[in-house]
Write a structure and sequence with these properties.
single chain; 438 residues; alpha+beta; Porin; twelve-stranded antiparallel β-barrel; 6 helices; 14 strands; 26% helix; elongated
Length: 438
């Protein structure tokens, strides 16, 4: 299942916001984009009930999916690893059940986008309201990708299927609107083993808010002995452009058991994507340049060099040499009727003379620098000169204001001191007068 927490449609492999397959089980045909390293995790818990017994085995574990694309924008490589602690029932007469931890899945795979369906933006349609709001039937044509992987036999897992077996599939996606899409996967797994398996997954995803999305999913698996199916739903929340949280729950059913599956996880990507620069001509069409050494490869580069050795070189003569030849021919034709003395007047071959570099004294260099500075000052526009003069005037006015303020403060202090002295004298006189009266 592909949770696309985007505000617009997908028009390329790389997106500005994380594009995760979690919490569903299906895979989108689109890759993460070159220079992107994405880790998708989920912690799960399952409980089933076996018929006709009353045994209810439980299991829990973690599922990891590492995705990256570095060779081509349409090609993605991924590794899917699952660790599970499963409860196994009826080991012997004395023990009814026991725990068995181990790897339940280790798949290395790649997918390539064969066909990408692009849609028209109807919001720009102004002439007709019906055309702008009607359903685009071209959206029923899906984008298609090919899936190829392998169940590795490096580690013996809990199901004892420690044998290398290939896995192939087809991935489809229909973007029925900007916020609603349907993904369909068809797989043929464990090819060449005793229990090959056919399966399909159908997922419908709806983005009802810029950061929230929900999905409904149906998965069915067929082999020689049993038929398994599950129906699930889930929700995803976008914390930021590179981090997504998700959870899901699903009902499990087959011929002999039923149960439920729940999960909670997160998806994180390390974005090192760099867009490719495309030169456009006068009419806006892209111009294909010659490929670099890294794109061509070692063999193609040397093969082109080997071919160039046997190509005929263009005999092109510079215009200067041709003009000199013409002048010499004209001069010879004009002087052919003259005497042998005038033969010396013909133009001689020009000799290449090495220029003599004169040493310049440091004093001359200083003089040149000073003259260049003066020229720059003289060449300054009037606007710059005016601004500098205004700045100088403003600074001078500020200085004068500061001086005036200081003078005013001094005069105020002097007046206060004088007033204080007068007050003291008056008080003294009053005291004297009172003393005399007594």
């Amino acid at each position: 299942m592909c949770i696309l927490l985007l505000t617009g449609t997908i028009s390329a492999q790389y997106t500005n916001v994380i594009n995760s397959n979690r919490p569903g089980l299906s895979e989108s045909p689109y890759s993460v984009g070159t220079g992107v390293y994405q880790l998708e995790t989920s912690f799960f818990y399952t409980e089933t009930s076996k018929y006709p017994t009353f045994y209810r085995p439980q299991s829990y574990g973690a599922d990891f999916l590492l995705r990256s694309s570095f060779l081509n924008e349409k090609l993605e490589f991924n590794i899917n690893l699952a660790y599970q602690n499963q409860e196994v029932g009826f080991q012997n007469i004395f023990n009814s059940s026991y725990r068995q931890p181990g790897l339940s899945k280790l798949v290395v795979a790649a997918k390539y986008l064969v066909y990408e369906k692009k849609y028209e933006d109807k919001s720009k349609e102004i002439r007709s309201w019906v055309a702008r709001n009607s359903f685009d039937w071209k959206r029923l044509i899906p984008s298609v990708a090919i899936y190829a992987g392998a169940n590795t036999g490096i580690v013996e897992n809990i199901y004892k299927t420690n044998r290398f077996s290939p896995k192939v599939g087809i991935l489809l996606q229909n973007d029925l609107s900007d916020n609603f899409n349907i993904i369909t996967n068809m797989f043929y797994d464990r090819i060449g083993t005793k229990l090959p398996e056919l399966s399909y997954i159908i997922t419908a995803t709806y983005n009802y808010k810029p950061r929230w999305s929900i999905f409904i999913e149906n998965q069915s698996m067929f082999d020689k002995y049993q038929y398994q199916s599950n129906i699930g739903t889930g929700i995803a929340f976008l914390l930021n452009r590179n981090l997504q949280m998700n959870s899901s729950i699903r009902l499990l059913a087959d011929g002999r058991s039923s149960g439920f599956y729940s999960s909670f996880g997160a998806s994180y990507r390390l974005d090192r994507h760099v867009d490719k620069l495309i030169n456009t001509g006068e009419k806006g069409k892209s111009i294909k340049k010659g490929r670099s050494f890294a794109k061509k490869g070692f063999l193609k580069n040397w093969s082109n060099k080997f071919k160039n050795l046997f190509r005929k070189k263009d005999k092109r003569v510079s215009t200067k040499k041709t003009n000199l030849k013409k002048e010499t021919i004209q001069s010879i034709n004009n002087n052919s009727s003259t005497d042998e003395k005038n033969k010396n007047d013909l133009p001689k071959k020009s000799l290449r003379v090495k220029p003599v570099r004169k040493r310049i004294s440091p004093t001359k260099i200083k003089v040149k620098k000073e003259s260049a500075k003066k020229r720059k000052k003289d060449e300054q526009p009037d606007s710059e000169k005016n601004t500098k003069e205004l700045e100088k005037e403003i600074k001078e006015l500020e200085k004068e204001l500061k001086k005036d303020n200081k003078k005013l403060k001094r005069e105020r202090k002097k007046e206060e001191n004088r007033n204080n002295k007068k007050d003291k004298k008056r008080k003294r006189r009053k005291q004297k007068d009172e003393d005399e009266e007594e």
